[in-house]
Amino acid sequence: MTTGGAPRAGAVGRLPGPALPAALSAALMAVLLATGCGASGSADASGTPTASASTTSPEELCSRIVAHWSREVLDSTAYGDYQSMGLSNGQYEILRTVVDAARAVKKRQGADAADELIDREAGRGCADRYRSGGPTEGPWQ
Question: Among candidates 130, 126, 76, which has minimal Cα distance to 103?
Fold first, then answer.
């Protein structure tokens, strides 16, 4: 029983603290903004960004991440692990196709042409992949 309305210690012996430390809150906001789930240029009275009502479609998110990693992998001889890139197996297959094509174009036409191809082919591959609403063959497909 508590006296004077003071809160009791929880199961681990601590009193409830702030919901999120400032550093964690800032990191979370950075992730939300990077994934298109955060602010869209608006802020509250304190200057803190406010949440946006818009969302990023699966096709757009796929296209962004595949294009990003395609550029990272383009000059490398290895592709790396798809899970460490945050890709599904199906997205990784798109990346491999895009990078193979971009390497050939880069040799023939230069880096700018390869960069354009990456955006175009990542977008096309992801649109095809999500055309019917998303993969249905399992969590890593």
Answer: 76
